[in-house]
Amino acid sequence: MKKNEKNKGHGFIKFVLFLIVLCAGVYYYARYIGTTGLVIREYAVVNDKIPNSFHGFKIVQFSDVHYGMTTFSDELKNAVDTINSLKPDIVVFTGDLVDYHYDLKDDEKNDIINILSTLDVSLDVYAVTGNHDQNNSYESILSGAGIKLLKNNYEYIFNGTSEKMMLIGLDDYLEGNLDLDSAFNFDDDSTYKILLSHEPDVFDKLPNTPNLMLSGHSHNGQVRVPLAGAIYKTVGAKKYYDPEYTLGDTKLYISGGIGTSKYKVRLFDRPSISLYRLYSK
Predict the structure, then answer these.
(1) Is 251 helix (H, G, I), strand (E, B) or coil?
(2) 159/106 Cα distance (integer angstroms)
(3) 80 phi, psi to nearest 5 deg
(4) Furthest-apart CA pair in the chain: how many Å?
(5) Quick one: which of 6, 105, 139, 195 is 20 to 30 A from 229 by CA?
(6) Per-residue burial over 16-42, b = 16 or more CB atoms within 10 Å of its CB, e = otherwise
(7) What percent of the chain has pLDDT over 70?
């Protein structure tokens, strides 16, 4: 074999080894580093329908814990401690608490209840169901932790005066019993409306558009590539999957979530919670 042919062969082997090392390194990072390091995403929400008494009102959203994948008691406790450090007025959870592939043990269920019970808010904690929450365990966890479940219904929020905002919560679009007629069974055009829905793509089915919509489910792709964005787009978040959209008069924010779904990796998409500061014009 000629010398230049040997060099070419060695060069090819080096290139293959480089690709193997690179892929192994990316996987290691995505599995063991990318799934850690909780990020706080902060947004200012300004709207003339927000009452003056809610100026500076703080909402913290967390979503897609998927307990049993890359999130367990320690990670959940860290998330709750981080939420409490923000001193929220209300906290909203937008679904997928325990991954449905995970066999939750009784002591783990009690741990989750105890951890969620420590959420410290000036008003209330609310939740909606995700496609992984279609079980009795989910509702009993919420009940045990004192969290209000909104399921195709709404509730008014007051902040020390007669002024109010409306909080609407939907049952899961994919696996639940979504009932938009029940959820939007009101005659109130003037009140500022916040909608909680696990899947963001349900926006296109809404009979009325809210002022603010908070969703999860997409994990913002879970694996993202610079310039290309989200790599994986799941059913229910095929159209809307990025962190933020302006859709007419509606601001839609989609949480990247705390845990992982299907694959125990995150790349260029750290686990996150969202802080919304509401301001009246």
Answers:
(1) strand
(2) 37
(3) -65, -40
(4) 89
(5) 195
(6) eeeeeeeeeeeeeebbeebbeebeebe
(7) 96
Whole-angstrom distance, CA of residue 23 vs CA of residue 17: 10
Phi/psi of residue 9, nearest 5 degrees? -65, -40
Write phi, then psi, for 180 (nearest 5 degrees).
-70, -30
Q: Tokens 């193997």 correspond to what residue? A: 20
Edge-to-edge strand ranges of the sheet holding 164-169: 153-158, 164-169, 193-196, 212-215, 250-254, 244-247
Global pTM? 0.93
Q: How many residues does the chain have?
A: 281
Distances (CA, A) of 107 to 23, 82, 113, 142, 243: 38, 23, 10, 16, 34
Give per-residue pLDDT as tens, 221-242: 999 988 788 988 999 999 999 9
* Distance separating alpha carbons of residues 112 and 102, to the nearest angstrom: 14
Residue 271: strand, helix, or coil: coil
Q: Which residue has the tokens 């009246």?
A: 280
3-state SS of 9-52 is HHHHHHHHHHHHHHHHHHHHHHHHHCCCCCEEEEEEEEECCCCH
Amino acid making up residue 129: T
Residue type, 190: S
